[in-house]
Amino acid sequence: MEIQLTLNGRPVRASIEPDTLLIDFVRAHGCPSVKRGCETANCGLCTVLMDGVPVLSCSVLAARADGHSVQTLEGLQAEAEEFVSFIADQGAEQCGFCNPGYVMNTIALLRENPDPTDDEIRAYLAGNLCRCSGYEGQLRGIRAFLNAKKAKEAEPNA
Amino acid sequence: MPELKTVGKPARKKDAMNLLLGKPAFVSDVTPRDCLVVKILRSPHAHALIRSIDTTLAMKVPGMVAVYTYKDVPNHRYTNAGQTYPEPSPHDRLILDQRLRFVGDAVAILAGETEQAVAKALKLVKVDYEVLTPVLDPHTAKDNPILVHPEDNWESLCPVGADNKRNLCASETTSDGDVEAVLADCDIVIDHVWHTKPCQQAMMETFRTYTEIDPFGRLHVISSTQIVFHLRRILSIALGIPKSKIHVEKPRIGGGFGAKQTMVAEIYPAFVTWKTGRAARLVYTRQECQTAGSPRHEMELHVRLGANKDGKIRALDVYTLSNTGAYSEHGPTTVGLSGHKSIPLYTGGLEAFRFAYDVVYTNVQAAGAYRGYGATQGIFAVESAVNELAERLGVDPVALREQNMVREGMTMPAYYNEVANACALDRCMARCKELFDWDARFPVRDMGNGKVRAAGVAMAMQGSGISGVDVGSATIKLSDDGFYNLSIGAADMGTGCDTILAQMVAECMDCDLDNVAVSGADSDTSPYDSGSYASSTTYVTGKAVEQACEKLKNQLCTLAAEALGCQPEELEFTGKAVRRLDGTAEISLADLATRSMCSNTTAVQATATHSSPVSPPPFMVGMVEIELDKETGAVTVLDYKAVVDCGTPINPNLARVQTEGGIVQGIGMALFEDVHYTPEGKILEDSLMQYKIPTRLDMGHLQVEFESSYEPTGPFGAKSIGEIVINTPSPAIAHAVARASGVWVRELPITPEKVLMGMLEKAEG
Amino acid sequence: MLTFKQYVRAQSLDEAYALCQKRSNLVLGGMLWLKMQDRTVNTVIDLSGLGLDQIEQTPEGWRIGAMVPLRALEKHSGLAALTNGAMAESVRHIVGVQFRNLATVGGSLYGRFGFSDVLTLFLALGAVVHLHHGGDIPLAEYVNQPYERDILTHVFVPNQTGRMAYIAQRNQATDFPVLTCAVAVGPEGVRCAIGARPMKAALLTDEAGILAGGITPESAAAYGEYAAEHTAFGSNLRGSADYRRALCKVLVRRALLACKEDA
């Protein structure tokens, strides 16, 4: 079947099998950041934004994305760069395989709630598993970013 | 010692930003998509013989290229264990066997043009199984009339006490002193059995491999592996082809934790490629990882701990029954750590010890290597026994440990008589006690609503590489403009060893970290390295890096001497240049590099290889506070504090994250990660939906500090960090739960049900 | 893996209804559970183009479209007020935000899964499901009916006359529950739903009049005992029947007392 969608801002028209999953579709269309970590919708590695909402691309039919806008980390590099350096400063990226999923969901979190508490961060990212970092360093990184942002905002305009 | 500029600093990992931004880095990202898809047909039975197998229908599916069965593979046995040859793990595998030994064992290899074709063909292979009675209970495995490996070409290459006609993968007894006599003389003997489950590494990237024939006609393997060199050897033995025909490399690895220290998946696409000449890939599903992977060895540990009323721990007797499952991988070696890395913690006043074990074959998923490698299981049992002793004596478990722990300078009879040259365990305990506010938080506190808070403690040790076995090498070369290429055979699996070893180069060569480019691991181009396991990379390979840098400096001085018209002895290396000691002339590194590329006969590339006769243990103390809901049995981890002695932390950030990650895996093992079998031997926790690893809501708050010692045999005084960090949560949490509930849960995981039902049972008397 | 030959985004409920009459066709909800099934069907029917993703207030209560994701239930202030926060409490532990952005209320109720937090809560709420052809059916009846070939379009939640509370026990924060408990207390009595038994949720009232004299620590405990006695429990990986029975007493008592505390 034919579908038409916006992938990272660019219109894409493609012919697909009806049961193609969105994760396989985007990986085949230049978005290898989207990872598969399970078959049971538990790991969060495949998180993409569909019409701005974070969803598991392993559980969305590509056909369902027809007519919608899909964003992956490939298309949100600048927004990610704002905060991921703070996670790098903690060494919390570790193996990196879960990173794109939780970076995408962190983008969604910060859009929805620009000033989250630690508990709000934990709750929002609960569906993003990481086996390396023990999560604490990821939290420190996001917290450091938020603190830096606040400090910058508090600076009197020169 | 001069002040360090790069070592000991929290440098960013060299690959951090690219990983965080999702750039292509892993096997599936960097290998061609256009290749054969390989899938494995797996046994539905725990024990069966293939009577007949018909692949005709499967091959009729359009796009199918090959279906291989046991009739197509070589008939000589090997082991998947990534260990130095000759491997202690008996050679007991064929690529495909007529006998199937666990639910999930490989029946056939299918290769086709598309995922869909192969998935369809999987259902069309007709197999007639002769279903046999399986050996499922490790207690009755030894000398069971049913044999897991009755075959005559089973072979044990090392004297590990293995005997396939007894279902024994290994067996041994070691002792020092008369343990029975000392136990008989003790005031108190703690005597219990502890049980741990075959937990899964559950790294986020499942096993996966891409294979192709390269332009030289060699088998080129790109795999997510910790062991490129062992893999080359194992593939060669399994396929029956020369090692010179195989080239193995690894891109970034999406987590390993020991899982990828075993050849789990590589053989299948390699076999397909070797047979068909076509590129192939195999990506394990999560279900395959959970049921046909290489998990921790299930162990049952019988500990008898003898002590006097004054708290002096005098004797430890540990018997471990380890379940290696259907195959031998890491069976004979993991079990050793259950005693040799738990008993020595109490070297302080120990008069006698005995450590005996049996490792048995059963018809369940074969175990393998998982962070902690047997020490985790042993420390759970021994540390729990010590906590039970403290409770029986009514003394502070911290004070009890301070009385009995191993201290710097002691010889550890249970640790191959090695001397604890660098041991800050006492300082770890003191600091952790202070950090945790132990005296205030150890007493059980009632929070109302049926909730109580309580604390637990545990110590741990591990090793740093395998003494007398592991080999680490490094090659460093001067390149244009004076930057360095560091080439290693160790595998960075997210741990950051590429960066850590580069920090050592930067320190030795007195340059910026950005001036060091790292590559590896590649079996063709990297210098030999056993691989990244056994907490060896920083300690063993790090030392090789240090030595390679010294060699390179000498070469640079030789080259500079030619340029400056003097003798090398008259020169010194300053980092940016080589100059005459009298200060009259110098040549910059950039100029030296340029000179090295024109009419030059002096090598500016040095390789060093290192192996250590000892394996200095890192030490650690962990303290946990939990809240127990006494009406539901629910345990919430509130706070975990740990202090680690890893010698010199080369990169404190990465050491900290290693520790935090290990603690959370340990919390998972302690509280959630369970494995159940059906009566037929099928694993029920075959997905991340059923096998629950901790989320960020399950771990409370973590805080990690370091108490450094200086290990004289390690690079910059470093020991190891990678494995020890998983060892304290199980005993510490079990301790806190017992304090809160009065119930000692001696079988992991500690589920709310075990706690509540234990409390109800106790209440009924 | 779920495989199929055809995907249809239904243009009308009648079209969806007609398509779902065939045994080889399947209606999609969030597709989270469906895609894990190793199953081949002919056509999957997507309701996402039918505007069933609205939460509307009516004089009698709230009308929730079948395609409303659990995350929308969680964030909805009107439903929070209606349920004293129990709505969000009942779904916030389900896997993660991305999962709840996909999982739908219609899928959850149609599935009548044993583990369902949503089913437990909506039972206690006295919800009524609306089927395109079958019309309105009280959830308490619907829960025990066989899977019908009809389109679940909406669920209606009546205005609540009293207080309610939701408590679930999980072995791990985002796992399936070991036991769920939703209690609604109003002038007309008590509706107590107990789910993840592990069989699908069951509804209890206070036929014995244990709470007739009001909710006290004693009466709440007595009702907890009553609920545990009058509910069937089974065993699965997450807990035994005995453990669930013991939990039931505690969760029911706590939920009742929470309703009282709130008041």
UniProtKB/TrEMBL annotation, chain A:
<dbReference type="Pfam" id="PF00111">
    <property type="entry name" value="Fer2"/>
</dbReference>
<dbReference type="InterPro" id="IPR036884">
    <property type="entry name" value="2Fe-2S-bd_dom_sf"/>
</dbReference>
<dbReference type="GO" id="GO:0051537">
    <property type="term" value="F:2 iron, 2 sulfur cluster binding"/>
</dbReference>
<keyword id="KW-0408">Iron</keyword>
<keyword id="KW-0411">Iron-sulfur</keyword>
<feature type="domain" description="2Fe-2S ferredoxin-type">
    <location>
        <begin position="1"/>
        <end position="76"/>
    </location>
</feature>
<dbReference type="InterPro" id="IPR036010">
    <property type="entry name" value="2Fe-2S_ferredoxin-like_sf"/>
</dbReference>
<dbReference type="InterPro" id="IPR002888">
    <property type="entry name" value="2Fe-2S-bd"/>
</dbReference>
<dbReference type="InterPro" id="IPR012675">
    <property type="entry name" value="Beta-grasp_dom_sf"/>
</dbReference>
<keyword id="KW-0560">Oxidoreductase</keyword>
<protein>
    <submittedName>
        <fullName>(2Fe-2S)-binding protein</fullName>
    </submittedName>
</protein>
<dbReference type="InterPro" id="IPR051452">
    <property type="entry name" value="Diverse_Oxidoreductases"/>
</dbReference>
<dbReference type="Pfam" id="PF01799">
    <property type="entry name" value="Fer2_2"/>
</dbReference>
<dbReference type="GO" id="GO:0016491">
    <property type="term" value="F:oxidoreductase activity"/>
</dbReference>
<dbReference type="InterPro" id="IPR006058">
    <property type="entry name" value="2Fe2S_fd_BS"/>
</dbReference>
Automatic annotation (TrEMBL), chain B:
<dbReference type="GO" id="GO:0005506">
    <property type="term" value="F:iron ion binding"/>
</dbReference>
<dbReference type="InterPro" id="IPR046867">
    <property type="entry name" value="AldOxase/xan_DH_MoCoBD2"/>
</dbReference>
<dbReference type="Pfam" id="PF20256">
    <property type="entry name" value="MoCoBD_2"/>
</dbReference>
<feature type="domain" description="Aldehyde oxidase/xanthine dehydrogenase a/b hammerhead">
    <location>
        <begin position="21"/>
        <end position="133"/>
    </location>
</feature>
<keyword id="KW-0500">Molybdenum</keyword>
<dbReference type="GO" id="GO:0016491">
    <property type="term" value="F:oxidoreductase activity"/>
</dbReference>
<keyword id="KW-0560">Oxidoreductase</keyword>
<dbReference type="InterPro" id="IPR037165">
    <property type="entry name" value="AldOxase/xan_DH_Mopterin-bd_sf"/>
</dbReference>
<dbReference type="Pfam" id="PF01315">
    <property type="entry name" value="Ald_Xan_dh_C"/>
</dbReference>
<dbReference type="InterPro" id="IPR000674">
    <property type="entry name" value="Ald_Oxase/Xan_DH_a/b"/>
</dbReference>
<dbReference type="InterPro" id="IPR036856">
    <property type="entry name" value="Ald_Oxase/Xan_DH_a/b_sf"/>
</dbReference>
<dbReference type="Pfam" id="PF02738">
    <property type="entry name" value="MoCoBD_1"/>
</dbReference>
<protein>
    <submittedName>
        <fullName>Aldehyde oxidase</fullName>
    </submittedName>
</protein>
<dbReference type="InterPro" id="IPR016208">
    <property type="entry name" value="Ald_Oxase/xanthine_DH-like"/>
</dbReference>
<dbReference type="InterPro" id="IPR008274">
    <property type="entry name" value="AldOxase/xan_DH_MoCoBD1"/>
</dbReference>
UniProtKB/TrEMBL annotation, chain C:
<keyword id="KW-0560">Oxidoreductase</keyword>
<keyword id="KW-0285">Flavoprotein</keyword>
<dbReference type="Pfam" id="PF00941">
    <property type="entry name" value="FAD_binding_5"/>
</dbReference>
<dbReference type="InterPro" id="IPR016166">
    <property type="entry name" value="FAD-bd_PCMH"/>
</dbReference>
<dbReference type="InterPro" id="IPR016169">
    <property type="entry name" value="FAD-bd_PCMH_sub2"/>
</dbReference>
<dbReference type="InterPro" id="IPR036318">
    <property type="entry name" value="FAD-bd_PCMH-like_sf"/>
</dbReference>
<dbReference type="GO" id="GO:0071949">
    <property type="term" value="F:FAD binding"/>
</dbReference>
<dbReference type="GO" id="GO:0016491">
    <property type="term" value="F:oxidoreductase activity"/>
</dbReference>
<feature type="domain" description="FAD-binding PCMH-type">
    <location>
        <begin position="1"/>
        <end position="162"/>
    </location>
</feature>
<protein>
    <submittedName>
        <fullName>Molybdopterin dehydrogenase</fullName>
    </submittedName>
</protein>
<dbReference type="InterPro" id="IPR051312">
    <property type="entry name" value="Diverse_Substr_Oxidored"/>
</dbReference>
<dbReference type="InterPro" id="IPR002346">
    <property type="entry name" value="Mopterin_DH_FAD-bd"/>
</dbReference>
<dbReference type="InterPro" id="IPR036683">
    <property type="entry name" value="CO_DH_flav_C_dom_sf"/>
</dbReference>
<keyword id="KW-0274">FAD</keyword>
<dbReference type="Pfam" id="PF03450">
    <property type="entry name" value="CO_deh_flav_C"/>
</dbReference>
